[in-house]
Amino acid sequence: MVASARATVTATLFRRTKALFEMRYENDRVFLVQAALLMAWHVEDSDTISNNAYHWVGQATRTAFGLGMHRDLSNRAYSLMPAADRRTYRKLWWAVLQAETYTALEYGRPSMIKSEDYDQPPLEDDDFHNFDGTPDTLARKDFCLMNAELCEIALDVLSLNAPRARWLDAGNIDTRLAELATRMPHTHDFWSCQLRINHSLVTLVSHRCGRTIDSAVLSREAASTILTTFETIMAQASIPKCSLHCSTALLAAAMQFSQDVKTATETSGSVMRAVTAHAQLERVLRPMEALSAYWPHVDALHKLCVRLCGRCSERIRDTTVQQAVNGSIDANARGYVDIPLQDIMAGYQLPDLGQMLVAEDWMNTL
User: Fold this and answer.
1) How many structural domains are present in the chain?
2) How far apart are CA 3 and CA 22, in angstroms?
């Protein structure tokens, strides 16, 4: 029954957990941070401001700051806190930082964490131990360390794009991204693929505003890497392992491909480049559809990409006809029709909590 009504079961369990959280049934604030991070993975409704990941990660971040998780608790710092608790605080802080960073990237909003606000050093080998001192064999240490380093770079990228951005060396950001790329594993296991997707997302966000002469090329390459890496994940049947924020990278790649179509059709003689970008945009639909089976909100993104493909196809066709008639492209002769996002999103509804259930089922009660 659970497998056939996944959305209903998860929605009901979330409602129960949310009720306990808001009732302050649990007083241990470390557990509250962990619970808030877990609850961020559920999409309850279309409210992306006072609900869902943006809300819950914000709760976790504020609580972590209040507990002092952002301050140095490494072995080199003086503290009366037991070693096991220090490890928990340090690992939890870096989990919060990564969740906050990717949430800010997803929604295009400021991060609550700034690089100057914490002095918690990066995790070390000693941090990947259980309470009894034995090594934690379940944690992917290399992925955790590199992803945390990538998130620190992403925080600077977010600051670089802020309305009142403080001065940052954009070239240094590129250098750090390049240096990290040289250390990333070149294997095709899931965690290596996930790291490549995250790295490409940060690169794409960093360059999509065209801040350097190479930005267009770097953005296209990052989007292509995201697409091909998702196809690798699909070939390995590892889509169920994808996190909540994977859809952000996939949508960013789709928007980049659509922008490439727009740019190419406005340049004389670049219709073939537009066709190539459109083909890549169409390839995004398969991993997007596969993700929607596990993340219901991705269904709306899939509809968006389908509509986007149609509009890009129309644009290429109109450009080809105009070239055949006039022998050139008049960039001002045809406006780019906006995609009706309201129409797309209006078709998305959350699952009915009573779906496939009878009155006696435990899931019908809070």
Assistant:
1) 1
2) 28
C-alpha atoms less than 13 angstroms from C-alpha of 36 in its C-beta half-sphere: 27
| SS3 labels along 201-231 | HHHHHHHCCCCCCCHHHHHHHHHHHHHHHHH
Any residues with CB less than 8 A from the CB of 58 and at least 6 apart, and which?
100, 112
Provide the 10 A C-beta neighbour count for residue 106.
20
Are 28 and 85 a contacting pair, CB within 8 Å?
no
Distance CA 100, CA 86 (A): 21
Radius of gyration of the chain (CA): 23
Residue 212 within a domain:
no
Q: Find the length of the chain.
A: 366
Backbone angles phi, psi at 306, to 5 degrees: -60, -45
Residue 62 in contact with residue 37, Cβ under 8 Å?
Answer: no
Please state the pTM of the whole predicted model. Answer: 0.86
- pLDDT tens digit sequence for 100-141: 999 999 988 999 999 999 999 999 988 888 877 788 888 899
Flag whether pLDDT at 41 surpasses 50. yes
Q: What is the pLDDT of residues 294-344, one digit of tens each?
A: 887 888 899 999 999 999 999 999 888 887 777 655 545 444 445 554 554
Contact (Cβ atoms closer than 8 angstroms) between residue 44 and residue 51: yes
Residue 116 placed within a domain: yes
Segments forming the whole domain that contains residue 10: 1-139
Query: Is pLDDT above 60 for 346?
Result: no
- Angle, CA of 85, 42 and 359, to the nearest 5°: 115
Contact of 323 with 271, CB cutoff 8 Å = yes
How far, in Å, CA of 95 to CA of 66, rounded? 16
Residue 295 forms part of a structural domain: no
